[in-house]
Amino acid sequence: VRWFQFSSFTTILRLHGARAPYEPASILLDKQCDPTGASGGPIEPWVYGPPTVDTLRAVQAALELRDALQPYAQAQLARLAAEGQPVMRPLWFDFPGDLESLEISDQFMFGRDFMVAPVTMPVANESSRWVWFPEGERVLGYLDWFTNKSFLPGRRESVKINPDLLSFCLLYTSPSPRDS
Q1: DSSP H or E stretch at residue 77
Q2: What angle, 0 to 180 degrees and rounded to 10, lies between the N-to-C axes of helices 70-83 and 54-68?
Q3: Can you give the pTM of this predicted structure?
Q4: Hey, CA dihedral for 86, 91, 95, 99, is it positive or negative?
Q5: How far apart are CA 127 and CA 159, in angstroms?
Q6: What is the pLDDT, as a whole number, of residue 112?
Q7: Amino acid 178: pLDDT
Q8: Do residues 45 and 60 lie in contact, with contact meaning Cβ atoms separated by under 8 Å?
Q9: Are 40 and 98 in contact (CB under 8 A)?
Q10: CA 67 vs CA 5, 40, 64, 73, 145: distances in Å
Q11: Residue by residue, what is the 3-state secondary structure of 11-67?
Q12: Considering just the CA atoms, what is the radius of gyration of the chain in Å?
């Protein structure tokens, strides 16, 4: 699920996998999207169970987030075509004067307005993760997309993990990206 959530911020979103089924397949092999059986088991989101199941709820939330960000992503792809600025990029790309950003390898920018700090461990193993909030000329602060909690730039903060979602912050500037 974490890979699926991460891929919500990539230009191509698709499920890939090769694994043996945990249980006898709930969908007969000839009814799966993998009729050859080469993957070892079904990988479609609906195979994880009804929407009350945590895994399926997390996949659904990632899809809803990607859908909400679609206009922004399209604008960033246009910027890529016109100016050559990548959509996904390391923090130092947008914060060259922030020395700490040079060392951060587990966070990235999605366009110039969104910072993503993927959760890479199962939530059962972690209830929070450390996130660096870079300083920059146009940065007034950061706002968690889901909780509206604000964070000051130039600080490392422990951010509570939502089991359904990535750690994902809106960079707020003047004017706010939500206003555009």
Answers
A1: helix 70-83
A2: 50
A3: 0.75
A4: negative
A5: 9
A6: 87
A7: 47
A8: yes
A9: no
A10: 13, 30, 5, 10, 14
A11: CCCCCCCCCCCCCCCCCCHHHCCCCCCCCCCCCCHHHHCCCCCHHHHHHHHHHHHHH
A12: 18
